[in-house]
Design brief:
Strand content: 15-25%
Keywords: Hydrolase, Protease, Signal, Thiol protease
Protein name: C40 family peptidase
CATH architecture of the largest domain: Alpha-Beta Complex
Number of helices: 8
CATH class of the largest domain: Alpha Beta
Family: Belongs to the peptidase C40 family.
Structural class: alpha+beta
CATH topology of the largest domain: endopeptidase fold (from Nostoc punctiforme)
Order of helices and strands: HHHHHEEHHEEEEEHE
Organism: Lacibacter sediminis
GO molecular function: cysteine-type peptidase activity
CATH superfamily of the largest domain: endopeptidase domain like (from Nostoc punctiforme)
Number of domains: 2
Distance between the termini: 32 Å
Number of strands: 8
Radius of gyration: 25 Å
Largest sheet: 6 strands, antiparallel
Shape: globular
């Protein structure tokens, strides 16, 4: 996770420094006429070379050109801050976070306290949160309780999990807790201890309480 965090911080720093790099190649303005003539006749450098080693003869493969930097910056701008934030939380490459509506909904509900029987941002329980997420992101109407949601889902092996699958747990007898799978063994749910949050299936508590997973979506495409 630290590796991804450093990568994304470097990316953001790169974006903010692009204008600085660009300005560095602009000719300085002079108040004298002679300086103006010299600037007009000056051949402006097309590339910015950045050494990646201490060697005095740097091979072509070890330098970045201005055009390359600009292209990389443009690709980074395709991703929102929310995508970067959840890529860090899930410890995955930002390109993995494609379903923007899913993570925007999670962000909007993040930290909502748990309340048994609750259905609003003043308090919500696990099955109501799953019901809200599946309708808001995938236009999929689910039953109200975790047990009913399990009955509606097609049981799948844990090594076939995809974003949008349901994860079921036995926390107080039978099917008593449910969440929605994201990536990298992480799932989002309304926890009794922390409200709406993301947890890891490898955590001791959840691995012991895990019953299995079910799929209610034919695919994980968001609603239009």
């Amino acid at each position: 996770m630290i590796r991804h965090l450093l990568t994304y911080l470097s990316a953001i720093l790169l974006l903010t420094s692009c204008s600085t790099v660009k300005n560095a190649f602009q000719p300085k303005q002079s108040s004298t006429a002679s300086a103006t003539v010299e600037e007009k006749n000056e051949v402006r450098p097309e590339y910015k070379r950045v050494r990646t080693s201490s060697s005095t003869s740097t091979p072509q493969s070890s330098i970045f050109q201005t055009k390359d930097v600009a292209s990389y910056s443009s690709s980074l701008e395709l991703f929102s801050l929310s995508q970067f934030k959840y890529a860090i939380r899930l410890d995955v490459p930002v390109e993995t976070i494609q379903n923007k509506s899913l993570y925007e909904l999670i962000d909007n509900w993040w930290g909502t306290p748990y309340r048994l029987g609750g259905t609003t941002q003043k308090g919500i329980d696990c099955s109501a949160f799953v019901q809200t997420l599946m309708m808001g992101v995938f236009a999929m109407q689910l039953p109200r309780t975790a047990r009913e949601q399990k009955e509606m889902a097609s049981w799948i092996p844990m090594d076939d999990l995809k974003e949008g699958d349901l994860i079921f747990f036995n926390t107080r007898g039978g099917v008593s807790h449910v969440g929605v799978y994201l990536h990298n063994n992480k799932f989002v749910h309304a926890s009794t201890s922390g409200g709406v949050m993301i947890s890891d299936l490898n955590e001791t508590y959840w691995s012991r309480k895990l019953l299995g997973a079910g799929r209610v979506l034919q695919n994980s495409s968001p609603k239009p």
